[in-house]
C-alpha cells in the first residue's frame, strides 16, 4: 500500500495509507486530516488547497486551467500549491508529502 504524509498546521507529520486512485482530499478525509473540500472535488472551491513539498511537485500531473483558476482564489498561495482533490494517488507518488496551508478560505464556517 502506498503511503503519503500530511504536515499539519501545528507542524506535526501524519503518515497515512494512500490507496491508488484516491485523491489527496479523499485520503485526508479518511484519516481525519483537516482539509475541508467544500465542493467535494468538483473544482468549485479552493478549500482543498495543499502545498506540495519540494521535489514532489514535479512528479504531479500539471494542473488544468480550471485548477489554476481556482488556486488563484486560495489564501496563502505558493509556487507548489495544488488542489488536493486534483492529486490522484498513483505508484509514482508513493511517499508524497503535502503541507496544509496556515490559512484557508473555509466556506462552511462562514
Ligand atoms: S474540493 Fe473544491 S476544488 Fe477541491
What labels describe this entry?
single chain, 110 residues, alpha+beta, five-stranded mixed β-sheet, globular, binds FE2/S2 (inorganic) cluster
What does this structure look like?
With 110 residues, this protein is an alpha+beta fold. The protein has two helices and five strands, in the order ββαβαββ. The longest helix is centred in the first third of the chain and has 7 residues, at 24-30. FE2/S2 (inorganic) cluster (FES) binds next to loops. FE2/S2 (inorganic) cluster (FES) binds at residues 25, 37-41, 43-45, 47-48, 70, 83, 85.
Specify the number of helices.
2
Find the structural class using helix and strand composition.
Answer: alpha+beta
Specify Rg, calculated over alpha carbons. Answer: 13 Å
Q: Order of helices and strands, N to C?
A: EEHEHEE
Mean pLDDT: 93
Percent of sequence in beta strands: 15-25%
Which percent range fits the helix content? 10-25%
Bound molecules: FE2/S2 (inorganic) cluster
Spans of at least 5 consecutive residues with low confidence: none
**Outline:** globular
Indicate the topology.
Elements: E1 3-7, E2 13-17, H1 24-30, E3 49-52, H2 65-71, E4 81-83, E5 96-99
Parallel strand pairs: 1-5
Antiparallel strand pairs: 1-2, 3-4, 3-5
The structure holds FE2/S2 (inorganic) cluster.
Amino acid at each position: 500500500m502506498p503511503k503519503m504524509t500530511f504536515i499539519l498546521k501545528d507542524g506535526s507529520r501524519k503518515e497515512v495509507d494512500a490507496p491508488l486512485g484516491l485523491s489527496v482530499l479523499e485520503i485526508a478525509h479518511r484519516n481525519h486530516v483537516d482539509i475541508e473540500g467544500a465542493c467535494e472535488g468538483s473544482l468549485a472551491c479552493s478549500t482543498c488547497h495543499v502545498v506540495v513539498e519540494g521535489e514532489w511537485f514535479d512528479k504531479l500531473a500539471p494542473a488544468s486551467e480550471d485548477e489554476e483558476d481556482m488556486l488563484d482564489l486560495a489564501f496563502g498561495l505558493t509556487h507548489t500549491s495544488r488542489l488536493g482533490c486534483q492529486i490522484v494517488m498513483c505508484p509514482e507518488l508513493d511517499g508524497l508529502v503535502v503541507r496544509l496551508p496556515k490559512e484557508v478560505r473555509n466556506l462552511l464556517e462562514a
